[in-house]
Design a protein that fits this description.
This protein has about 140 residues and is an alpha+beta fold. The protein has helices spanning about 10-15, 20-30, 45-50, 60-65, 80-90, 105, 120-130, and strands spanning about 5-10, 35-40, 70-80, 115-120. The chain has 7 helices and 4 strands; from the N terminus they run βααβααβααβα.
Length: about 140
Amino acid sequence: MALERTFAILKPDAVGRNLQGEILSRIHKAGFKILAIKSMRLTKEEATGFYAVHKERPFFGELIDFMSSGKIFAMVLEAENAISKWRDAMGATDPKKAAPGTIRRDLGTSIQMNCTHGSDGPETAAFEISYFFSTVELI
């Protein structure tokens, strides 16, 4: 199996509740290597560009407001099958429907405030990684 990279965000609800240490610990225990990480606060414009794929969805405005409401941690994770492995570690978008032991089940409070984001495929991962990190930051 080849190593794969995926993009992850610790969302404002997780950082605001000081859960970043717990989630980073879970990332390490799951066997991921963190290739790049930064703490930042998205502007509404940055959030709009990042989530442009959801522009026509009814929740878009709320999503942009939420993602620009506080600090996030943006990360590039590496592991074998990193995309599916990270999605499994996060759990379903709705914490109530997420499997026991997943981040969203254990720490999320709602569909929006579910602590984490992860790429859903290789093309998405490539876009999302490049949105936040330059090639030099990934060496």
